[in-house]
Amino acid sequence: MASESNNKPPRMFKDKLLSLFGIGKPQKDEKGLPPKAHFSIWYFVLAMIFFSYLQPLFFSAKVETIPYSKFKQYLSDGKLDELTIGPDHITGTLRGVPDQDISTIRVDDPNLVKELSDSKVNFSGQYQNKFFGAVLSWVLPLTIFFLIWRFAMRKMGPGMGVMSFSKSKAKIFAESDTNVTFEDVAGIDEAKEELEEVVEFLSTPEKSQKLGGRIPKGVLLVGPPGTGKTLLARAVAGEAQVPFFSISGSEFVEMFVGVGAARVRDLFSQAAAQAPCIIFIDELDALGKARGMNAMGGHDEREQTLNQLLVEMDGFETNKGVIIMAATNRPEILDPALLRPGRFDRQVLVDRPDINGRKAILEIHSQNVRLGPEVDLGKIAGLTPGFVGADLANIVNEAALLAARNDKEMVEPTDFDEAIDRVVAGLQKKNRVMNAQEKEIVTYHESGHAIVAESVEHADPVHKISIIPRGVAALGYTQQQPTEDRYLMTRSELLDRLAVLLGGRVAEELVFHEISTGAQNDLQRASDIARSMVTQYGMSDRLGLVSYEHQRQAMFLPEGFSPGKNYSEAKAAEIDEEIARLVEETHQRVQKILSERRTVLNELAALLSEKESIHGDELRKMLAAAKPAEKASSSERLSRE
Q1: What is the DSSP string of 486-527?
Q2: Chain segment 175-192, per-residue pLDDT in tens
Q3: What is the pLDDT of residues 389-444, one digit of tens each?
Q4: Quick one: 139 and 273 in the same domain?
Q5: Domains in the chain, number
Q6: pTM of the model
Q7: Residues 94 and 183 in one domain
Q8: Catalytic center residues
């Protein structure tokens, strides 16, 4: 106890001494707030300098500066009393005027001393010490530059100084600042279940350690963009009520060598001091890309940072209570050393939500939105297959903004329909006016898509048909509504999907006996489906059960590349012939479907040209009314045959 009490005063004296010079952290008051004013010895030095210059002006006698000729006149008239001769100036007093001093500039006058002696004037010389002036001429500019530099560093704020490159840029959220729990996350129930034991370890670690088990050191969240990986990590911190360190993988790497590794060390040292806590590294692929993939060499700054991260993760003890979580949508390019047991032991898939998950997400995002009584979130979830949480949140927000723009009291189903159209097809082009011929072509094109979709067995039902231009190049669109989420596609379903894509082109051929450029995207998608059926899925009787192309692409991103064909030119010709055969057979099939429903095609085109947008129920009524006529015509054709 005595040693502790003796150590405190020197530390306090040292802190006060440093604070006088403006060095170190300022002392805080009783409430933990910094003081409003901070005394520094530099203020005292500046005050003394100004005082030394201003003192002669305010506290010396009144001095009259006279020319040298007048000074000589005073000397010849015997008016001078006492003089002080300096190197540059001559100062003195006048006889009979004690409060009046004179001063003049000294000139080269060799007879001055003799004249003063003859006039019996008391005079003396003056020694001027130039050391203080010389020192001041050096110290004052340096002091001014130092104060300017210090002021600039303070304005830059903490973490922006010259020596702060190696500091971690992680954002630290306290227990009370996270404000996200598992109740705010929906549609990814399996991922939440995987992370519940992480929450249990952070809140009650003794439960996991009682039987000798250990919690995974690292948890890697993988999934498409917008599925809620970052939100799920914050929910874990909010449930466990622990500090949350959030940083992006790109914030570690700088142009200076060694900075990234230093930031990794600083981040883990801060986390160890705050344990139990969570470190969350977003976009881990920016930091953890596999070593050796850089064409410029393998010893760059990013790889040094990755090596330091591997060392820190491998050296962490499980009893420190630090959980490392990371998120990426490109797990296939991560370094294998990151994914081995002992580092990122567990990989949690945060996938696109199913229809029930989409409904739950819509319920969360629409809690603060005034919904009309006719709004069915389940139906909206059915209209948005493949949408992630970010897309659904955007749809709810767009619907609310549209309702407010139209001065509505509540958000109605039409607002959600328009919001979905905006997200899927783009903004409506109200100023784009098509001529009569183009409008007629687009009308029959979209009618062909819709009729074929309702005529084949395995296609999704039509929800909406529109010829309103949207987006960059969409002059019209046919929206289908899946009845359920699908994860596998059969050969019959792919052929029906191929038929729907060709419906617009075939309708133009039947009606106008001419083709347009409007089917470019349809033909591209149809060709991709046919090529995949032949080269990847083994759905060609001619080529057999062989996969001829190995498409390498990201798991959750659309970009990909093909390493090239690994078959002969003769086999390539067979593949091209088989693809053309599939497309042509589907083309003949679609021609037959639309030829039998030519009356419905004309009626639908006329109705669509009038309304510009109709729902699938109207199309199904038209097809149901036309079925008896089709049966009658087919029976007459059979009787003639």
Answers
A1: -S---HHHHHHHHHHHHHHHHHHHHHHS---GGGHHHHHHHH
A2: 556 678 888 888 888 888
A3: 888 999 999 999 999 998 999 999 989 988 888 887 777 766 666 788 888 899 99
A4: no
A5: 6
A6: 0.66
A7: no
A8: 446
